[in-house]
């Protein structure tokens, strides 16, 4: 394929391919199709986390559309935290950092509204078979191979959350307890940089439950104590589920808050 600009030039993109042009006969608004094509390029790794995407005029030329139409697609990807605009520098592919995790994916706060970064400890790790709920949430065959691990999270030095996390073994080949225990950034950062899987959104359900005995011991509460149970499925750019998480939260001093957006 012929590239625009010298080899290795930052922002170089493939020259106009017939398949890149957006037909005016496309169903729905043209910018939605542009957004879908850009998501596909991101999912395929054409633009890596932390890298700048090509300049708007070059992308508009690539897709054969007006700059204004392109900007509508980019605006939506920015609003969904897939891309990040940096004043005077350009638009970049979002990458998972501690701050991004804290403000986008961590929804437990103190009663006074303060949000703290949790201290995470790995309790257990194993390769197993998906139970019915995990298989359904992850769109896997019954009893498909998965990795299952448990984390205990402390806030302010006290145990507050227990996470039971399940991920497909096929997508996470090479995941080990050691990699989880020695990571220096967030779990989603490990998914992104270790396995090429960028979590961009989550879907959650919340209900009250009594603390199971094993969870009660980790949270230092009596068995049967009221806890908040959160079921979360995490999705990638192409809307594929890659993680199912069951969380138990002690709400004696904390509560759940999810900002709209």
Q: What do these coordinates show?
A:
- The protein is α+β, with helices and mostly antiparallel strands and 261 residues long.
- Helices cover 27% and strands 29% of the residues.
- The protein has 8 helices and 10 strands.
- Strands 4-5-6-9-8-7 form a 6-stranded antiparallel sheet. It has a two-stranded antiparallel ribbon with strand order 1-2. It has a two-stranded antiparallel sheet with strand order 3-10.
- Helix 1 (30-43) packs across helix 3 (67-79) and helix 2 crosses helix 3 (67-79).
- The longest helix is centred in the first third of the chain and has 14 residues, at 30-43.
- The radius of gyration is 21 Å and the shape is elongated.
- It starts with 29 loop residues before the first helix and ends in a 5-residue tail after the last strand.
């Amino acid at each position: 394929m012929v590239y625009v600009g010298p080899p290795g030039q930052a922002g170089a993109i493939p020259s106009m391919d017939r398949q890149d042009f957006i037909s005016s006969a496309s169903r729905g608004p043209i910018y939605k199709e542009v957004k879908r094509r850009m998501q596909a390029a991101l999912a395929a790794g054409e633009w890596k986390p932390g890298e700048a995407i090509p300049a708007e005029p070059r992308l508009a030329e690539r897709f054969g559309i007006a700059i204004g139409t392109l900007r509508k697609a980019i605006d939506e990807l920015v609003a969904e935290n897939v891309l990040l605009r940096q004043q005077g520098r350009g638009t970049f592919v979002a990458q998972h950092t501690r701050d991004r995790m804290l403000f986008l994916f961590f929804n437990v706060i103190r009663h006074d509204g303060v949000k703290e970064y949790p201290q995470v400890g790995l309790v257990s790790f194993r390769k197993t078979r998906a139970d019915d709920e995990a298989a359904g949430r992850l769109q896997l065959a019954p009893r498909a191979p998965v990795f299952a691990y448990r984390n205990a999270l402390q806030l302010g030095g006290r145990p507050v959350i227990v996470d039971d996390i399940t991920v497909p073994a096929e997508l996470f080949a090479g995941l080990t307890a050691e990699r989880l225990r020695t990571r220096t950034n967030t779990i989603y950062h490990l998914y992104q940089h270790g396995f090429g899987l960028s979590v961009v959104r989550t879907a959650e359900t919340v209900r009250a439950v009594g603390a199971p005995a094993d969870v009660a011991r980790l949270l230092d509460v009596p068995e049967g104590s009221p806890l908040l149970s959160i079921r979360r499925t995490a999705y990638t750019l192409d809307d594929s589920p890659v993680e199912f998480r069951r969380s138990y939260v002690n709400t004696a001093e904390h509560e759940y808050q999810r900002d709209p957006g």
